[in-house]
Amino acid sequence: MSESFIIGDRVYLATAPPYLKTADTMPMLRPGDTVPVGTQGVILQQKPGDYWAVKFEQGAFLVDTSYLKKVVYESKPAAEE
Known about the structure:
The protein has no helices and seven strands. The chain is mainly β.
């Protein structure tokens, strides 16, 4: 089962793809290590074929769902007084 995302979700690159395609009007291929594994980004748009446009610090790239994981925030219990 593939993970589902919505626009605005914070995600991180869980595994390195062999290459990354920029999400520009004229896309270009970049090496897979352009965005290090573990880098967080934000979902900008859903694309056909189970791809997502994700904005990372290094730029916006089209990333297959299989390489992404949703950032999970753990809530801390309130300090007891």
